[in-house]
Amino acid sequence: MAAGRKNTLLMGVGYEMWFNKFGNHATAAGVTKPGINTYAPTLQVEWHF
Question: Taking the model in full, what pTM does it have?
Answer without folding.
Answer: 0.48
